[in-house]
């Protein structure tokens, strides 16, 4: 038993010395190629075995012939190990190079393509993660392009929408100043209407800028959805009467919600105003609210005749409008973008779908 322990001790000391030297070499070569590192690892393994064997052989006083035989066997094993390590290192290095080239392509704005061949499991997992990241970057670039397009359209449209009333205001002011206005009271009333419309547009722009900057401060409180919808219907009723549209809100559940009452009233008001203006006279705008598995759902259904399928994904984009007309009451195309921003600030979501004779806008909010 003592001889076995001594043999184990001598073998451990010889292998440990080789291992320490190999660790130092690996640290010095840590920035070199993977082939070099694998070769060092294979060399350390063989050197540790050789050092332990030679130490034990020295302690056992083997004959020179036996020591030569042992050394030759270990040298052959070292040669095979080093060749195997170099081949493996070349294969892994080639796969890493292919992965680097594929990564560079999608980093420059392209799409990541999985390298050909069968890479090692770790490299294959890395390639899958890079492919998923590439898909997310493509989606992000697409959203960024869409946002940039909508910003440019918004600037152009807002410029047009502001220029028209300003030109009218200037003409009316000059007529009043020159005493050419036959009915000055009508001119003053029209000036007030145009100023109110411009003030509403500027208010929408300010609200949207706060939403997009993430500075919209909410003051949530527990309120009844029935009361919230009822107030919104009462506020939209004069506009509905003016357009000859009937408001229906008889499917409102008594559901409590934790929301900012002022901001959610703006959401419902924007949806109702949009629905009333798009619904022809003698049409109906219906409001419903109920609890579902995903939360509390509030829907506004109009009689606009539907939205083209290709436009449905853009409905809540900034500056989008259902027609290319830039005359009142088309608006600046900010109402639905504000709706989405406020709802998302409440951790909710907005959706739109076509229904029989019109479309249905729905807002889903978390339950209180």
UniProtKB/TrEMBL annotation:
Keyword Cell membrane recorded: yes
Catalytic reaction equation(s): ATP + protein L-histidine = ADP + protein N-phospho-L-histidine
Pfam families in alphabetical order: HATPase_c, HisKA
TM segment ranges: 6-26, 38-61, 67-88
Location of this chain's protein in the cell: Cell membrane
GO molecular function, a single term: kinase activity
Keyword Transmembrane: yes
Membrane topology, record value: Multi-pass membrane protein
InterPro entries in the cross-refs: 2C_sensor_his_kinase (IPR050980), HATPase_C_sf (IPR036890), HATPase_dom (IPR003594), His_kinase_dom (IPR005467), HisK_dim/P_dom (IPR003661), HisK_dim/P_sf (IPR036097), Sig_transdc_His_kin-like_C (IPR004358)
Residue ranges the record marks as coiled coil: none
Keyword annotations: Cell membrane, Kinase, Membrane, Phosphoprotein, Transferase, Transmembrane, Transmembrane helix, Two-component regulatory system, Virulence
Major subcellular location class: membrane
Record protein name field: histidine kinase
Native source organism of the sequence: Streptomyces globisporus
Upper taxonomic lineage: Bacteria, Bacillati, Actinomycetota, Actinomycetes, Kitasatosporales
